[in-house]
Specification:
mainly alpha, 11 helices, 66% helix
Amino acid sequence: MSGSLDLVFDYTNDVMDTYHDTIHNLWYVIALIAIASFIVLAARGVGWFSVWTLIEYMQLVALIPTYNFKMISYLYDAFKPAMISHLIFFTNTPGLHHMDKNWYTDSYRYYGLSDARLLQGCIGIAFLCFFLATGHLICHLLAKSMKGSPVGMWCQWAMDQLLWNVYLRVYMLCFFSLCFFTMRVIMANRFETQGEKALLFISYVIFVFNVAVASMFTTVIQRWFDILKPMLVKRNCRTLLLKVDKRSRWRVLSPTFFFARRILTAILITLPGSTQFIFLQYVFILMTSFAYILYIISIQPHHTNM
């Protein structure tokens, strides 16, 4: 083969087909590892910071082909299991088979990133939000009907955790996916039918909402800096503050960096390969990764001076 089709290999080869099936099974292995990590860390009471960090970097790794450089298809198979962090489970999307052959660009086709497959992430986010809202409603009803009892007190504690930690952490988990999916729809420039126009409008609304919420969170952290210092408040707001030592305002820039990097990354990786600004993808990823390492070394966020 010649040209860009040299990225396509013979998946009917018995050996390579076996490896390909193994990669698909690893999706569920990684999902089980993540679930087990949450359970073990919760039992030990040491927090979930490490497993959240793992998932966040898996989200960035999972979409490597979108950086507009060629990668051998089988090599990308090693990264595909990380797509579980975007709540993408199936190769062929149930109920959306007509979209399994729709591709944003040829590069997406080479790596099997169809519109339907990416849409799984949005559907997964919707199910996750529904599950949390249902759990919150149940806790509210139990806390109200069993007020003063151990069960009622636990439900009240659970609602506090949902409000201050769980909802924010889930939003941070979905933040990159939401930014990426909405930017991909906007950059696709497909709005001929009424459905496509509605999808484009929804994408603009979600993207603007993400920018507004990210700005609000970073503003709250700065404005509430002194209020959030007491240990009890820090414990209740540990997700918002990302377990960063709050001895100076310089140390609470980590959430700001988190949101800013993911918004800009989502914009850059959806740029078409023909754009003259494509080199910014590599420069931005390299420089922000290096800058964050220097930031962490400088502030030592988990080191507390007694």
